[in-house]
Amino acid sequence: MHCLTALQEGSFLCGKKQINMWSILFGCFAAIQLLLAAYLLQPTFLLLIYGIKKFFGFLFAKKKTNIEAPGKNYSFAVIITAHKNLQLVPPLVDSVLRQTYRHFKVYVVADGCDHANIGYNDDPQVKVLLPEVPLNAKIRSIDYAINQFDAAHDVMIILDADNLLHPDYLNVLNRYFNKGYRAVQTNMLAKNNDSVYAQLDAAGNYFSNFIDRRMRMEMGLSANIWGLGIAIETALYKQVIYRNFLGGFDKKIQADIVKLIPQLAYAEDAKVYDEKIDSGDALETQRTRWINAYFKYFKYGWDVLLTGLRRGSFNLVFFGFNLLRPPLFLQVVGAAFFAFVNYWISPVWMLGWIAAMILFPLSFFIIVAVMSTDKKTVGALFYLPVFFIRQVKAFLHIGRANKAFLQTQNNKVIYIQDLLNQ
Predict the structure, then answer these.
(1) Average pLDDT for residues 242-269, to the nearest whole number?
(2) Secondary structure element (H or E) that encloses residue 391, with its range
(3) Which of 60, 65, 77, 207 has the maximal Cβ count within 10 Å?
C-alpha cells in the first residue's frame, strides 16, 4: 500500500514537472513571437504616429533649428576615406569646396592607392594623406586622418569616396551644433537611380531614414547613424575604442556615443548623396558585410538596452531594442515560419501573423511613397522578391566578411552641380 502511494506521488510529481517544462517552453515560444511581431509592426506604428502628426499638426511637433545667425562658427574636419581608388574623390572634394560655410578643412586618406594626386592637392583647404603601409580598414583611415589634423577641429565629418555634399551641408550642420547637439547624422540620399537595384537600394534608405531617423527625431529620441555622413565632436569620437577593424564601424560608434550624450540627432536638411549599388553581385557583397556586422556586434545592442534599463532611460532602451532588431528579410522569414507552425498550434496566432505580413509590406510601400518623389523608386518596389533572394544568398556567405575587407565597387563619376541640375 505504501509502495503504491509512493509510486502515485512520484508519477504526479513527474507529470507536474513535465507540465511546468512545457509551460516554460510555450512561454518562450510566445515571447519570441511577440518580440518579432513588435519589430515587424513597428513601421506601421510609426506610420500611424506620422499620420496623426500630419492630421492634427500640433502633435509631436518637429524640432527645428534656429534660422537666426548661429552664435559660433564651428571648425569642421571633413574626413574622406578612399581605398585603392581615387577616381570618385575629385567630385566629392569639389562639392566640399563649394560649401557656403567656409570654416573647414578636407582630409583625404588615400589608403592602398599608388598615388595621391586628386587635382586639389595645392588647395589650402585640402590635405591628401598617403599611408606608407596599407590600412585596409575604414576605422584605421579615420584615426590616421585625426593624427594628421592641422588644427584642433571642433567637429569631424566622416564621408566615403563616392559621396557628394549639398552646398548648404556644413551651414546646416553648424546650426545643429549651435543648438547643443554633439553628434548629428545627416540625410543620405541616392546619387544615382539608373538601375532597378539602385532604385531598391534607395527605397531601403528611405524606409530606414523614416523609421530610424526622422520619426526618432520627431519624438525626441536618438537616431541611428549610417557609416557615412555622421558629424561628431572630435573629442567625443576619441572616447570610442575599437578592437575589431573589419566592418561594423557604425555599430560600434553609435552604441558607445548614444550612452554619452542626451540625443544623437538627425539633420534631414543636411543632404549627403551616396552611390547606390547597381547590380545583384554588388548587392550581395554589400549585404554580406552588413549582415555579418549585425551578428558580430549584436552584443552592443544588449549593452545599450541594459544600460538604459539601469539608468531608467527610455531613449537608450528603445535604441538598444532596435540595435537588436534582425535584418528585414530575416524578420519576414521568421514571420512566415511562425505563421506555418501556428497552423497546428494556434490558428488565431496564425491569422495574426498573416495580418502582420500584410501590414508590413503595405507600410513599407507607403513609407517609401511618402519619403520619395521619384516614381521610378516607388515602381521598383515590385521587384522586391528579387532583392529578397539576393539577401538570402548574402546571408549564406557572411563568413567571408570575417576573412576579408569586402568593398562595394563604385564608379559613378558626377559633380554636385550636374546632380542638382538633373
Answers:
(1) 82
(2) helix 384-395
(3) 77
